[in-house]
């Protein structure tokens, strides 16, 4: 296990921890019995003792932990017969200031952009928009991501928990470094991309140039014989917004099978979390499957609790959140990490047990990292 100590290992293979300390000493490593040991050291030790030591990845370890509670996180969206259509989850990505937040504001008649510090998005926001396509009411879930270069991890995460990526490129500015970065995240996550060429209201806008530039990166517009939809839009005048929504719905219907069973214990992912002065830990959760309800026991990463309130993207209290709906969840005992998985479990006790185990593991991993740094420092002192 990652972050294991020599005492842990000694117990596993039935030897004295002290002799392992000695073996390592002879190999030139000073490690105490209770200290957590780096993966490569464990492997060296294994080779020396003729043991095949495999270090379990954190993902595998978490899977095992959940399995021990008869739980599984991930792919299972329910039996074929119980599946119902769910809205597509669409992540809006692109270079800083190209108008992602403004575009979402225009789509949902809000004004998030004006409230942001310096007009720069620093956290992931999630919203639902309703639109009519071919006479049918359709919901789309949007995830806003920051374009500033400092937020690579957030963009990568955004691309992972999405069905479709909307790549926003300002028509006056053209393709820029984070445009390419976002494009690569979307490609790596293997999600279909719709390009929104924004700011076409500007005198200096050159939407044709954007098409040419992106073609060089493999996004060839349909009108040039490729298979990527490009939609010219303006978040200021509202031009093209209907077309953009339609393109998204068409892409979802053509390329994806978006269904989930709303009647199973909810699972999802925390896309953002923070500590609110008045309300305590608040996590924005995107539900993947099942329906999350008030009163349920949940575990979110190494946080746990009972759902005290659910708040939708309009700030209204709701009783439940079905698949693809982002909600703020109140009632956690601590703040989970962004990207942590969220599961409804049988009861508070189970939630706490899982959370405690994850917490202990995280601490061990941190310790292992710190002790590795220490050994390196000692090395340089000599
Ligand atoms: P980050 O989240 O920091 O990456 O920026 P962003 O992509 O969300 O850009 P944002 O929505 O904050 O817009 C940046 C600036 O561009 C703001 O001043 C907007 O008013 C302006 N803007 C956005 N869309 C348009 C548009 O369609 N036309 C014009 N003229 N200006 C726009
Ligand atoms: Mg923004």
From TrEMBL:
Compartmental location: Cytoplasm
Record-listed GTP binding positions: 94-101, 144-148, 198-201
Source species, domain of life: Bacteria
Domain Tr-type G intervals: 85-256
Family under the similarity heading: Belongs to the TRAFAC class translation factor GTPase superfamily. Classic translation factor GTPase family. IF-2 subfamily.
Function of the protein: One of the essential components for the initiation of protein synthesis. Protects formylmethionyl-tRNA from spontaneous hydrolysis and promotes its binding to the 30S ribosomal subunits. Also involved in the hydrolysis of GTP during the formation of the 70S ribosomal complex.
Protein name: Translation initiation factor IF-2
Organism: Tessaracoccus flavescens
Lineage: Bacteria, Bacillati, Actinomycetota, Actinomycetes, Propionibacteriales
Gene that encodes the chain: infB
């Amino acid at each position: 296990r990652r972050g294991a100590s020599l005492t842990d290992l000694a117990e596993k293979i039935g030897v004295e921890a002290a002799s392992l300390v000695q073996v390592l000493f002879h190999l030139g490593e000073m490690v105490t019995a209770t200290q957590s040991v780096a993966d490569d050291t464990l492997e060296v030790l294994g080779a020396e003792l003729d043991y095949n030591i495999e270090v379990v990845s954190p993902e595998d370890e978490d899977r095992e932990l959940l399995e021990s509670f008869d739980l599984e996180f991930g792919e299972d969206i329910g039996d074929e017969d119980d599946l119902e259509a769910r809205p597509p989850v669409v992540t809006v990505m692109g270079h800083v200031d190209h108008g992602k937040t403004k575009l979402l504001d225009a789509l949902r008649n809000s004004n998030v952009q004006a409230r942001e510090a310096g007009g720069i998005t620093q956290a992931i926001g999630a919203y639902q928009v309703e639109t009519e396509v071919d006479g049918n009411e359709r919901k789309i879930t949007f995830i806003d991501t920051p374009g500033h270069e400092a937020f690579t991890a957030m963009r990568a995460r955004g691309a992972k928990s999405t069905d479709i990526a909307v790549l926003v490129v300002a028509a006056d500015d053209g393709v820029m470094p984070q445009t390419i970065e976002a494009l690569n995240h979307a490609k790596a996550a293997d999600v279909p991309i719709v390009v929104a060429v924004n700011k076409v209201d500007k005198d200096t806008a050159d939407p044709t140039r954007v098409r040419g530039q992106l073609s060089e990166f493999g996004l060839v517009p349909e009108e040039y014989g490729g298979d990527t939809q490009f939609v010219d839009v303006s978040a200021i005048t509202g031009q093209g917004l209907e077309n953009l929504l339609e393109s998204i719905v068409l892409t979802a219907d053509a390329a994806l099978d978006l269904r989930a069973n709303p009647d199973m214990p909810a699972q999802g992912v925390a896309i953002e979390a923070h500590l609110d002065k008045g309300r305590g830990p608040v996590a924005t959760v995107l539900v993947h499957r099942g329906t999350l309800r008030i009163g349920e026991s949940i575990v979110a990463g190494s946080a746990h609790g009972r759902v005290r309130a659910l708040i939708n993207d309009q700030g209204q209290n709701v009783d439940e959140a079905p698949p693809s709906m982002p909600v703020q969840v109140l009632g956690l005992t601590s703040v989970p990490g962004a990207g942590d998985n969220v599961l409804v479990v049988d009861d508070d006790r189970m939630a706490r047990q899982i959370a405690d185990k994850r917490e202990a593991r995280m601490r061990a991993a941190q310790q292992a990292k710190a002790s590795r740094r220490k050994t390196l420092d000692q090395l340089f002192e000599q």
